[in-house]
Design a protein that fits this description.
Blueprint: H1 4-23, H2 33-65, H3 69-81, H4 91-109, H5 113-127, H6 135-148, H7 160-163, H8 173-183, H9 188-199, H10 219-224, H11 233-250, H12 254-263, H13 265-271, H14 278-299
Helix pairs in contact: 2-3, 2-4, 3-4, 4-5, 4-6, 5-6, 8-11, 9-14, 11-12, 12-13, 12-14
Length: about 300
């Protein structure tokens, strides 16, 4: 027969054995709990983005069916912006691009050939992002041609609001910055900061020295970057980001790359750093300030 002392000892030993992991500093909760919380947070963010994309897609289709094609175009482009970090094989990317092709087809049927060409140019550019094979772009072109040979699914009668839309509409500047920055592997916040410092987002801005457009391209630079219409936002941003990409490759120091965008690489090479020009020094500080502000806004 076990006496009471022995029973107390057995009970004590049992308790110690059960709590031993915790007593040795080993958490009783799984060690990957923190990482699981992080994964859960990431999953929640992805779910919010997925729902947002679904909502935009639905709104875009409704606008398209209602004859508000310009509005549909803007919505589908915003939907694509949500997928900027998605794989090229993501079916949502293909859906958004196909919806834009449908918008282009409607423009064509309404004898708005310039608008149709602009949208198809956007689709082609996105489909061949990062220099991918143009097979994907040809697929969308074939889809566009097939739509033009079919009967319209809806009447698509233009409303008064539709008829009053601006003919020179382009995707929002922010969407253009995101797409072009991704294409050339440049931080989009840096591009946005330079646009803010250069033109304050005025697509028709012209400096005293003759620099033009959103990213204030000099005529010689614009020509070197293949820009033929410097006041067209998509072309200007493409040329400016392409030029910036070259400066970033040339100067590993961000300050010098920004200074070279303002004062030119010759001046940066001559002084082996940011030139002692008050304008350039203030420009570098302003761009870096905008850069940090835009990054902070997205983190909120």
């Amino acid at each position: 027969m076990i006496d009471r002392v022995d029973l107390r000892f057995v009970a004590f030993a049992l308790v110690v054995s059960l709590c031993a992991p915790g007593c040795r500093g080993i958490p009783l909760v799984s060690s990957n709990a923190t990482s699981q919380d992080g994964s859960q947070s990431e999953t929640d963010s992805q779910e919010i983005a997925r729902r947002r994309w679904a909502l935009l897609s639905r709104e875009g289709r409704e606008a398209m069916v209602s004859g508000r094609s310009q509005e549909a175009e803007a919505i589908f482009i915003d939907a694509l912006a949500l997928l900027e970090d998605s794989e090229e094989s993501d079916p949502r990317v293909q859906t958004a691009l196909r919806n834009l092709v449908r918008v282009a087809s409607i423009y064509q049927r309404l004898e708005r050939a310039d608008d149709a060409a602009r949208v198809m140019s956007y689709v082609d550019d996105y489909a061949t992002l990062d220099g991918r094979d143009d097979l994907r772009a040809r697929i969308f072109t074939a889809y566009y041609d097939s739509l033009n040979n079919q009967e319209l699914e809806h009447a698509y009668r233009p409303t008064n609001a539709y008829l009053n839309e601006r003919r020179n509409f382009e995707p929002t500047v922010d969407a253009l910055i995101r797409r072009t920055a991704r294409r050339y592997h440049v931080d989009r916040y840096l591009v946005k900061a330079i646009v803010a410092a250069e033109s304050n987002f005025d697509a028709l801005a012209v400096s005293k020295k003759g620099a033009q457009g959103l990213m204030q391209l000099m005529p010689v630079t614009a020509q070197e970057m293949g820009v033929t219409t410097p006041f067209k936002p998509s072309e200007n941003i493409r040329g400016g980001v392409r030029y910036l990409r070259g400066l970033l490759d040339r100067y590993p120091d961000l300050d010098r790359a920004i200074a070279a965008y303002n004062a030119g690489p010759v001046a940066v090479d001559r002084y082996k750093g940011v030139p002692p020009y008050p304008e350039t020094q203030q420009y570098v500080k302003r761009v870096l300030r905008y850069y940090e502000e835009y990054r902070a806004e997205d983190d909120r």
